[in-house]
Design goal:
By secondary structure, the protein is an alpha/beta fold. The protein folds into 3 domains: about 260 residues, no CATH class; about 100 residues, Beta Barrel (Elongation Factor Tu (Ef-tu), domain 3), CATH 2.40.30; about 110 residues, Rossmann fold. Helices cover about 50% and strands about 15% of the residues. It contains 17 helices and 15 strands. The strands form 4 sheets. It has a 6-stranded antiparallel sheet, with no helix packed on it. A 5-stranded parallel sheet has the order 13-12-11-14-15, with helices on both faces. A two-stranded antiparallel ribbon has the order 1-2. Strand 5 and strand 6 form a beta hairpin. Helix 3 packs parallel to helix 5, helix 6 packs across helix 12 and helix 8 packs parallel to helix 11. The radius of gyration is 24 Å and the shape is globular.
Length: about 500
């Protein structure tokens, strides 16, 4: 999986989804022209161009009306999803359905929103509202000829987001629900199986639409509950007046649950200063306009409006480098040559300029039991959650048994060294600065490693490599936690 993880670590979540949908669209058009798909290639091209145009124009007008800058990638993603759900254009009447579908999706992003954050999946809202007016949809992306490409794309998204637990919770609940309803209506096992997996949208729906970070709960347990709820309603059959059970309704109900159980955070942060820690790492210090309640090690989604923005958009997920005990918010960021427009804008921020933070999430946090022995393994900028944790332990004067293994290419690449040195003197933190961490080093420097819980923070490839190394020396998976947030690149 190293090749896959290396690729995924170089691409943002939004860009991965957008490019994946673009590839799926291209495959479907080829299938249309070759007769593999039942819809014509010409019809699919017209449909795609129209829905992209409608969504783009609608979003542009609404953004001007509300005087906000949006992530254009999310607009194209919504357009592509609608393309895969709606019946391809076959007459001029269908054109109006496409215009209405695209406009409704964009309107929902602005009007069905709280603190400028949409609550429901825009494509699901659009299709649901169309259904109330008797407009049917096909979910043709669920056809058997699209299954393999959808499965490959879905796997990449799940791997990038690390949402397999969410997906399988949805799949299990959905399959149980579908089979229970089907068998009670006299359908055969094979008939139910083929209609669900070979001619239904369950894989596309569960891996692409269900996993949207903005409408997903923040913790693993809540995500699994969310998946199970959507899966249950996905398979049920009911109706109340004009409201019928559909995949889009199942997702809307799940989104509502997600909103209820998720933190309600949206803060405007003003830059106080930025400190250069290493040749390519800066520590940004922001003053929030309101108190942000979080636990050491969690992350936020950061939105920085700028124009022109590249295809990676104006949103990123970054760990909060500060401790909950600090008044200001610290953000540690590594910059690369030929970086994204987002990072270029971030680096150019002047004192007094602002950035938006929202979508608090993450379970990479300290254990409640202060007697539990810990090992922190960090690679490069992966040190940021440990800066948050160590600062918290230092401020709270906790006597935790922690060994920090911090890997960098050269000593000049070490970030936040003063803090870790202070924690060594004050609370007994043991810090080992190294170039390469291997199993021999772990066994030598941490002789009681089998008694400890390991926290690993860094790129996907590094995290996976260390999981394997720790397994080799007898550390169980239950003793390992890793830092992860979508859209890292």
């Amino acid at each position: 999986m190293k090749f896959v993880d290396d690729f995924l670590n170089k691409i943002t979540m939004y860009r991965l989804v957008l490019y994946g949908l673009l590839v799926l669209a291209g495959i479907s058009i080829i299938f249309g022209f070759t007769g593999i798909l039942s819809y014509s290639g010409t019809s699919l091209i017209y449909s795609l161009l129209l829905i992209v145009a409608v969504c783009g124009v609608s979003n542009y007008l609404l953004a001007k009306l509300f005087k906000v800058q949006t992530n254009i990638e999310s607009v194209w993603i919504t357009a592509f999803i609608l393309f895969f759900i709606l019946f391809p254009i076959s007459s001029w009447t269908d054109v109006w359905f496409y215009v209405l579908a695209g406009a409704l999706a964009m309107v929902s992003k602005y009007f069905l929103a709280i603190q400028k954050k949409h609550i429901f999946n825009p494509a699901a809202v659009s299709v649901f509202l169309l259904g109330l007016f008797g407009v049917g949809v096909s979910w043709w992306v669920g056809s058997s000829v699209m299954l393999i490409p959808v499965m490959i794309f879905g796997f990449l998204v799940l791997r990038k987001l690390r949402r397999f637990n969410l997906f399988f919770a949805f799949l299990l609940a959905g399959v149980i629900s579908v089979f229970a309803v089907g068998l009670s209506h006299g359908s055969g096992f094979y008939e139910i199986f083929t209609s669900t997996f070979l001619s239904g949208p369950i894989i596309f729906f569960g891996s692409i639409m269900l996993t949207e970070p903005l409408t997903t709960p923040p913790t693993r347990k809540l995500q699994m509950t969310y998946g199970a709820i959507v899966g249950l309603f996905f398979g049920l059959q009911f109706h109340f007046g004009p409201v019928y059970s559909t995949p889009e309704l199942a997702l809307i109900l799940g989104n509502l649950f997600s909103y209820i159980v998720s933190p309600k955070i949206r803060a405007v942060l003003t830059l106080i200063r930025k400190d250069k820690l290493t040749a390519d790492v800066y520590d940004f210090v922001f003053r929030p306009d309101k108190k942000i309640s979080f636990m050491a090690g969690q992350y936020l989604e950061w939105t920085l409006g700028h124009s022109p923005s590249d295809t990676r958009g104006n949103r990123r997920y970054f760990t909060i480098a500060s401790s909950p005990t600090e008044e200001n918010i610290h953000l540690g960021v590594k910059f690369y040559p030929n970086g994204s427009s987002f990072k270029k804008k971030l680096l150019s921020l002047e004192t007094g300029q602002t950035i938006i933070a929202s979508q608090l999430s993450g379970e990479f946090i300290l254990p409640k039991d202060q007697k539990e022995k810990l090992v922190f393994i960090a690679g490069g900028i992966g040190i940021t959650p440990f800066r948050s944790m160590v600062k918290y332990v230092l401020d709270k004067e906790q006597k935790r048994d922690i060994v920090l293994l911090y890997s960098n290419k050269t000593p000049s690449d070490i970030a936040y060294k003063d803090l870790f040195d202070s924690a060594e003197r004050s609370v007994g933190l043991k810090t080992i600065y190294v170039g390469l961490i291997d199993k021999e080093m772990i066994m030598k420097e941490v002789p009681d490693y089998l008694e400890r819980k390991f926290y690993i923070s860094g790129p996907h490839g590094m995290v996976d490599a260390f999981e394997s190394v720790l397994n080799e020396i007898g550390v169980k998976n239950s003793q390992i936690k890793y830092d992860f947030f979508p859209g890292y690149a």
